[in-house]
Amino acid sequence: MCARVGVLEVEWWSSGDCERAVPFGPAGLCSRKFHCASWMLLISFLLDMVIRKVTRHLNICCKSGAELNDFAVFTTCGLASALLLGVDGPLNGFLAVIYVLATSFRLCFYSAGTPFTYKGLPCPYASCVLASTSLLTKGNTFILSCMASLMVLFMMDQSYYPHDEILDSENWKKVVYLGGVIMLFLSPFSLTAFYCLMWSLSYIFFPDALWGKAVCLRLQQLRN
Question: Which of 13, 18, 118, 155 could form a disulfide linkage to 106, CB 3.0–4.6 angstroms apart?
Fold first, then answer.
């Protein structure tokens, strides 16, 4: 699903529709595309957790499936998210390329060798931060560039982050997820973007204190 969303976004932006005559002009059409693209990235962020939940529940994991999942993450959270930065200037284009390369580098270290942890910031959270920031700032390229640079550092830092198996974890995490789904359909757009941004930032800056308690308990049980 993630790959499908990401591929649709890449094809949508590269189709050249921004040059067609529309009531709001080319700039208005491009702005609406970036707005819709940001929402699609947030939807893919939520759908990714459901897909992983279903995959674990049905026990249908396999090597080819894992490779396809990496490709889906790279397409959506790498290519499609990088296009939010815009490619209308050399600096933006260069940063977009760096972001895509950082996503690829992050996926190469997806398996940390430590149970229940990721090595480096998971790409979906970086994508969620960029999409939420794009919605809140109405596509401000300077702020997006700053956030993208920060996400690149977190992805390449290779610090340890707990597995975000929210739908298989504590009840309060399930409430956080359910709140995101409800707000996506029922609340004002800006409030939903702010909610997803705070959700992602809390995972980035408080991975152990807030989101990793269950992981610590599992590791202690394994050691015992």
Answer: 155
